[in-house]
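Appendix B, record 7
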Amino acid sequence: MALTYVLFGLGAKLKACDWCEILTCVEFPPKSFADQPWWYCDECQTDSLGHWYPVEDRNAKGLELYGRLEITCPSKDVIEVIFDEPTPTIDHLKVIDYCRDLCLGLA
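Structure tokens (predicted):
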């Protein structure tokens, strides 16, 4: 019981290490080995950033077409991306690319 108190009661006051936060995300592979990392460690790494809006028309296969994307930046600003040609697919990686480019200026 005493150990439980030490672990949970004081846990909020104690810190395991000062540098542990940097281990939560490491870009891989390192930029020196690849033109583009497989993932980034910035604020744009979440699925809740974008909302896709369909257009009224559908393609020949009857699939919904998306012509507009709203991105909520980490700063809470909303940016609208309008496509020249509506797309039938929702690409979450594209949302991250647009966020990094338009919100963070990291193209």
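Remarks on this record: The helical segments are 2-9, 92-103. Strands lie at 50-58, 64-72, 78-87.
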